[in-house]
Amino acid sequence: MRILGVIFDLDGVILSTDEYHYLAWLDMAKKENIYFDREINERLRGVSRMDSLEIVLERSTKKYSQEEKIKLCEYKNNKYRALLEKLSPKDIFPGATDFLKFLLYKKIKIAIGSSSKNAKYILKKIELYDMFDGHISDGTNITKSKPDPEVFTKAAEMLKINPCNCLVIEDAYAGIEAAKKGGMIAMGIGSAKDCSLCDLRADDISSIDKSIFE
Ligand code: B16
Ligand code: MG
Question: Which of 9, 27, 51, 138 is labelled catalytic?
């Protein structure tokens, strides 16, 4: 196992905007009189906005047209964007910036592989955007959502590294599945640690065993 590049999922790995996603979906669900709770929110981890909406709408008896669904996604995103306004470098998980610096020092390339269309905005707010040197594969350059490997395959292409030499760090089951389908090494952190497909595991970004990069 030779790791030449690391592809980071964003939300749940470098920082958490979970609570903001939850509050924005809850707001939309209340407006539509749909039941929504934190357990349902867990199922939205790593899933695209439209696929997330489909999960939220499972609790609705109303049939929504495609146009209405797009409007609901816009409503949720506007609420979410308003909450993201507050983000700052203080929101980065402890140890994440040091870990990125360590990899760059070791000449290991880094990229983002996130389902979010807000990834670049978030990276700018937390002041990590420049560190990735344009290697950001996100919801804006993919057609298929995780567990499809597209977002990671495109990140590996950006890095010009063979997928088998890329480590993907993910907090979502869908992301681990995507990494394995793409032929990458998959590390599960947080709740994805329990996924049987993981090659490697860590509690969080600060407790990753650095000897795997030797
Ligand atoms: P947006 P990640 C994912 O980010 C979130 O985990 C998921 O909850 C969200 O629905 C998805 O991005 C799309 O986000 O609405 O901002 O485009 O974990 O892949 O970095
Ligand atoms: Mg995530």
Answer: 9
Say how many domains are in the chain.
Answer: 2
Ligand 1 contact, 115 CB (< 6 A): yes
- For the cut 90, the answer to whether the pLDDT of residue 34 exceeds it is yes
What is the domain range of residue 96? 5-16+89-213
Ligand 1 pocket check for 41: Cβ under 6 Å:
no
3-state secondary structure of 55: helix
Chosen domain end from 50, 84, 118: 84
pLDDT band at 1 (very low <50, low <70, confident <90, very high): confident
pTM here is 0.95
Same-domain check for residues 93 and 79: no
